[in-house]
Structure to design on (688 residues):
């Protein structure tokens, strides 16, 4: 592992994207969301995308100067054509519009299609919650890796869902996870370490349980979490993220460009109900009473979002650990762009 | 088991509630939702409530002539005081208002407090989906039975969530489940049969895994489904169902009246996005492609809602099986009200 300060990665990421034609602000935002992914411990949605996105830019899949546009709008909704701009730019617009409309009309729903990979969806719900609205986010992933419950083979992407809820401090309550037992990134981590994986994470290409992470890459598949209950949410994310927005479905055969997201956000202003301040106090009260509860021996009670905040605090202080291979790829790619790593 | 035709239960249920002072239409609706619970296989939310609700009416907890009222309203939202009317009456109003507002303004959010037990939440999302809107429902249950992930003891109710999505036929896509591994009703079923239960359903009062369903009743607790992911949803249901609506929280000490629900629905009209007909076609397409997929040996691929529709078709044809003890209680109670069972 190489340990790199977040500040350095922010500058480097921005310049990598600028060197490929992104406007300053957009390059900065892309770098910020990816560094935030790494800071919060979601390394599968972190700085390794400096290079992956760049390959997609080179392939013409991410259009650096495209601007997402609203194709249909009402006071409470917006329907966005992402125009294959960087996915983060589309998701930012979606979130800003959803929050603004919810603040004006109490509730809103915004969806987007032609949208590239947006990074970690919790970034957007977290931002919305900090603005004082409740945000629900459903994304489909146009890159099938997960079987359906009772089925075999790769049918859907990891179809994440996220809910951000305002609290009394700057750290929202935040759920943010794949509807598979684990995200594919965790399999990659196990492969890198040559570690075994739990039997309920994947099946091999013959449908057999396996503790070998390489069996997933070799034609295996991930399983939905929580049996039929997680499977139901996997499908909800597909229906809202892909079908409602007119985005590519997980099982569609034409997987170009790679790994698109169909994205859908609902935002609710608590002012329509108990009011924002009472809501914040109530959320804090529930959180503190949950945390005061009796723990199982050897366990901790964590609130959704808390593991991310803890990791972020630690990595802001100590730097972000990056696998040597990932770091070398970033450095090599920066060099090809004419950026000298010693300047960062 | 006694097998009783749905028609007979509908008439009997209506008269049981009418005999206690409910207006004809309200009595009919209560009976309908409970018989529908039994028809769809959700026996834990079925006709056994003919008697349970009646006890709550007798205790003054369910107010037969109360009318839920909207205390705060905007074009897209409504905030309802249920006035401790029968919970079904409050949930019906919430659903009707949410659907009407979504149809007029594309998206809506409606919440209610002072709400008694509403029965199976899928009843309402199913109804909304049939009207052509997408409905998301979050309910807290003011009757703690479930531990938090990593914790011990009863902290929250079974806090169900449901999503109803329109399809091309009269059978919506419908998720509808407790955020615990199983609903408490399944433990009761195992107790009635003196059957063992899987180890991941509950803990006994000492926090130990157990296959004995009676250990749950004797101070044990249910576990959230899907480890930290289901736990996160359990909390989301609490934050939206209870905190946002100002309802009693699961862990509140004052558990009077018994088993309230804090309820919250979001409704979205697909017209704001791809349009209702395209959406229906897309949902049907995903469903049929999922069902055509390869199955695990000995398994079936089911779509959320399908088990309920299959059970309903069978029970409409063959009658509803009711445990003898439950049936005897209903008959005895009807008799006390002056209703002769042979008239039904």
């Amino acid at each position: 592992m190489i340990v790199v300060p977040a500040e350095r990665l922010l500058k480097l990421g921005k310049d990598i994207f600028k060197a490929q034609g992104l406007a300053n602000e957009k390059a900065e935002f892309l770098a910020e969301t990816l560094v935030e992914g790494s800071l919060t411990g979601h390394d599968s949605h972190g700085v390794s995308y400096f290079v992956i996105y760049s390959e997609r830019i080179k392939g013409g899949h991410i259009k650096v100067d495209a601007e997402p546009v609203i194709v249909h709008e009402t006071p409470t909704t917006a329907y966005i054509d992402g125009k294959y701009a960087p996915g983060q730019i589309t998701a930012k617009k979606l979130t800003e519009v959803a929050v603004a409309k919810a603040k004006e009309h109490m509730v809103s729903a915004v969806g987007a299609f032609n949208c590239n990979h947006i990074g970690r969806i919790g970034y957007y719900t977290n931002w919305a919650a900090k603005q004082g609205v409740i945000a629900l986010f459903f994304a489909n992933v146009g890159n099938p890796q997960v079987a359906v419950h009772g089925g075999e083979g790769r049918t859907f992407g990891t179809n994440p869902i996220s809910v951000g809820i305002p609290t009394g401090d700057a750290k929202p309550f935040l759920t943010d996870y794949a509807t598979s037992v684990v995200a594919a990134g965790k399999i990659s981590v196990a492969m890198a370490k040559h570690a075994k994986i739990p039997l309920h994470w994947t099946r091999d290409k013959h449908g057999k349980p396996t503790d070998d992470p390489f069996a997933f890459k070799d034609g295996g598949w991930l399983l939905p979490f929580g049996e039929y209950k997680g499977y139901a949410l996997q499908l909800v994310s597909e229906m809202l993220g892909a079908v409602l927005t007119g985005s590519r479905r997980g099982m569609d055969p034409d997987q170009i460009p790679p790994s698109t997201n169909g994205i859908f956000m609902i935002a609710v202003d608590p002012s329509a109900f108990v009011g924002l301040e009472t809501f914040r106090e109530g959320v804090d009260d529930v959180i503190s009473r949950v945390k005061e509860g009796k723990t199982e021996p050897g366990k901790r009670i964590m609130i959704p979002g808390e593991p991310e905040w803890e990791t972020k605090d630690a990595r802001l202080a100590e730097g972000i650990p990056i696998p040597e291979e990932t770091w070398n790829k970033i450095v090599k790619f920066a060099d090809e762009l004419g950026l000298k790593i010693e300047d960062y």
About this structure: Chain A touches chain B through 72 residues (CB under 8 Å). The radius of gyration of chain A is 20 Å.
